[in-house]
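Milestone M4 deliverable, item 7.
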Amino acid sequence: MPSTRYALRSNPKEEEQVQPFRFLSLPPELRLRIYRLLLKRNEPISISHINHGNSTGTDVVVETRGNTTTARRPTPLPPPSTDPLDTSILGVSKLLHHEGRPVLYSENTFTVHTGSAIRSLNALHQRSRSLIQHVSLSIPSYYDILDEFPDIVRLGLRYCWGLKTLVITLPFTMPDDDLQSTCSRRSVFANAFHIIRWLPKQTKVRLDGIVPKDIAAVVDKHMIENRVIDEVSAIHILEPMYLN
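Output delivered:
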């Protein structure tokens, strides 16, 4: 007669009775670690890859400047990460989506690209956009300062209500001013950066790359104004406490 141990192993019905792993029975701190393994990366992540898969941004964009109309391809997206995110866990249940979404959007740094930034940000639900805290934007040419950058801020980044840091990279040299012109071309590009006043007040803007002094001055001016507003607001909050 076969032993009980052998009989249990040879019973196919009992072998099929595999108990599911009860993920929600784990302590919250362990679930958080798993979310971070799946949804957080140390290097910046292209938000276009999250929203549009492996889109290469090859649609032709038609531009008109004065009497000249040109067609160009938008800035190509960087290749997907060798360690891509696995966001499938967010679709398992509402509870897992509620727990994991803050890890994905608040703990990563996202890169946005001219030509796709507005589409990528608008594809997100506002609850997800409002969780984004860190964004990196590279402006590939000085023409994009006038054509793309204002709309990216006004139509996209302004709705990232939790945005804390925005790093803007300028990897190009600005054109020299025309001495015969009454209006400095560099001042025109610098004035375009006044659009950052539309960003959430707590956002700290940092410039990287080849940064002209007049553009840096505009950004510094707005950062100082925001600090003053924060200090005045703090005083107004504390005044009733001292009066009582």
